[in-house]
Structure to design on (153 residues):
């Protein structure tokens, strides 16, 4: 009996053995931090979170794709409107005549048209560069570099 008393003292068990409340068993178990119910609940919650992660990610990706497609649709609609306006302008005979005169130097019958060549255009600049160019042509500089590489040092 002395050994039993020593064990009870170590456990902090002061209740008599036959008290019927199961004091020695409950004091021995105590309240564990994680019960089996809590573990199962945690596993179920993780399973729910993992099963919802993929659909939510897909939903977000689809929303982004929808927004991108709506933007492309607005851009395409704007381009269609611009092309419709251009088609309407090209249907106008006076617009076509103006563009022909401006771009192609077209002259109606009975009109006298003159083109002034003052050297200020692109053709005049090119002629000046060809005549007074300080840099040699590319093939000449290439040949000089081949000759220089062939010379002994």
């Amino acid at each position: 009996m002395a050994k039993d008393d020593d064990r009870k003292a170590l456990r902090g068990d002061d209740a008599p053995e036959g008290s019927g409340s199961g004091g020695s068993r409950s004091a021995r178990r105590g309240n564990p931090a994680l019960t089996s119910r809590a573990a199962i609940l945690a596993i179920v919650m993780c399973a729910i979170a993992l099963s919802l992660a993929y659909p939510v990610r897909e939903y977000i990706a689809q929303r982004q794709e929808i927004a991108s497609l709506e933007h492309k649709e607005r851009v395409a609609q704007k381009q269609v409107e611009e092309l419709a306006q251009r088609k309407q302008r090209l249907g106008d005979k006076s617009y076509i005549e103006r563009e022909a005169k401006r771009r192609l130097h077209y002259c109606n019958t009975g009109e006298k048209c003159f083109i002034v060549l003052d050297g200020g255009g692109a053709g005049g600049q090119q002629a000046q560069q060809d005549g007074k160019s300080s840099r040699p042509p590319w093939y000449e500089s290439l040949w000089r570099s081949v000759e220089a590489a062939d010379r002994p040092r």
